[in-house]
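Throughout our pipeline, every protein is held as a single compact record rather than as scattered files. Such a record has a labelled line for the sequence and another for the backbone structure tokens. This encoding replaces a full spatial description with a residue-level series of whole-number codes. For reference, a complete record is included directly beneath this paragraph.
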Amino acid sequence: MNSVKDMVLQISVLSIIIGIVMAIKPYGKYDSQLKLFTSCIMFIGILSPFFDSIKNIDPNFMISTSSLETAEELEYAADEEVLRLAEAELEDALKLKLAEESVPCSRITVCMNTNEDQSINISSVTIVSTKAEDAERILRNILGKDVEINAEENF
């Protein structure tokens, strides 16, 4: 609020000074040069409070250790949530695929992790089914040989 008051006061004083200068100038002589000069002074007077406020901005105002820690925590939480959602989506997709193949499953659990290059890797799949061998064969065809598949028989 004080900066607004200072700006209004500065513009008012400049206006009075410019008015006095314009009143005492010789008639017709130096009109264009004086108008240019007074316009520049008024323009600088209007912008100077903005320059003062920009000068007072701390260059490190966005960077602090607490905000960095919070950012790292948010990044970790986001990564965990992405993994959780990816696991849930893959579980649903695998259940649908097994249902298409007429292999019932009572439970399927997918375990994923993030590699150093931020790619998601399926580490293991655990399935409980009455047709465990068929379920394991189908999942092996879908997921490949690198994924650990644990098929448990449900009686």
User: Anything to note?
Assistant: The first strand starts at residue 105 and ends at 114. The mean pLDDT is 81. The beta strands are 105-114, 120-129, 148-153. The two ends are 76 Å apart (CA to CA).
